[in-house]
Design the sequence.
């Protein structure tokens, strides 16, 4: 059985690692440090941690000011607050002037669970993808979250980092380095391509295993960077396989699936089925229950794969 860990813990652990070697690293939080795990950073670096209170927009502006002074601030809160409550400030104070601010957004996606629809942010990738100058990283497990945070600090410019609330499977295939803008080829296959981002990568791999047992050679491309897309890897898959199933813990509108569909329709048309939250608000429940309820499991990916391949098999 795989180990299960928090992606937000990978973020917090990376921040401590970064701060030990770079005095410019600062962490801001909006009075949710225990939940975001940045409380761990505060224990080690109390003079470089700033609780901005329940003032997320103000926190983004403080981060912008610190970036202008040469620091590398990580502004941290829940995804729904980062993308919506503070969205105006993210747009105008960070993205527009292209400042070196990193936004750590935890509690994203349907697996926020018991907090319900108000906190289950399934629209944030769409919002952040639409902002010029913004890089969007959606890692799949604890270790990839740690690596993504390190990579974000090493590049100049605004970065949105997306993490979940629950514990998720550790996926060893993800751990061979991290490069912003690069896909990871997790399985080879010439019939179908499954494209994953975030914590549903384990479901994508399980679906590929099932399809392999049915004689369908399935490629799995994992995209921890949703913006910028690895266009080369996706277009190679479009040329070499018969279609795509995209898999994301996000609304099917505005996220990974639409980005992939837009790219391939322009350059090398292929059918694209999108597995994700189907333009609805969520409800309270255990994370595992919600993944079942909103059809975000391997079985649903397999069904979508059959639908994509059906015309070609007639």
Sequence:
């Amino acid at each position: 059985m795989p180990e299960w860990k928090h992606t937000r813990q990978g973020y917090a652990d990376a921040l401590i690692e970064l701060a030990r070697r770079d005095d410019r690293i600062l962490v801001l939080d909006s009075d949710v440090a225990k939940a975001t795990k940045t409380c761990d950073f505060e224990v080690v670096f109390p003079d470089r941690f700033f609780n901005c209170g329940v003032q997320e927009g103000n926190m983004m502006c403080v981060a912008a000011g610190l970036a202008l002074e040469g620091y590398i601030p990580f502004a941290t809160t829940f995804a729904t607050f980062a993308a919506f409550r503070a969205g105006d400030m993210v747009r105008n104070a960070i993205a527009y002037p292209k400042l070196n601010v990193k936004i750590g957004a935890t509690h994203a996606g349907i697996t926020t669970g018991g907090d319900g629809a108000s906190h289950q942010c399934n629209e944030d990738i769409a919002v952040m993808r639409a902002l010029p100058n913004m890089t969007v990283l959606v890692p799949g497990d604890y270790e990839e979250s740690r690596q993504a945070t390190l990579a974000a600090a090493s590049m100049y410019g605004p970065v949105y980092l997306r993490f979940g609330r629950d514990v998720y499977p550790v996926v060893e295939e993800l751990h061979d380095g991290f490069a912003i803008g690069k896909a990871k080829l997790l399985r080879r296959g010439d019939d179908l391509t499954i494209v994953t981002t975030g914590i549903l990568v384990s479901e994508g791999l399980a679906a590929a295993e099932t399809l392999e047992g049915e004689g369908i050679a399935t490629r799995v491309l994992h995209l921890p960077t949703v913006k910028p897309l690895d266009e080369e890897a996706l277009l190679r898959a479009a040329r070499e396989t018969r279609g795509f199933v995209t898999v994301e813990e996000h609304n099917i509108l505005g996220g990974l699936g639409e980005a992939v569909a837009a790219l391939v329709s322009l350059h090398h048309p292929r059918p694209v089925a999108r597995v994700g939250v189907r333009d609805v608000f969520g409800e309270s429940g255990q994370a595992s229950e919600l993944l079942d309820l909103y059809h975000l499991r391997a079985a649903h990916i397999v069904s979508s794969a059959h639908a994509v391949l059906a015309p070609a098999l007639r």
Remarks:
- The chain has 13 helices and 14 strands.
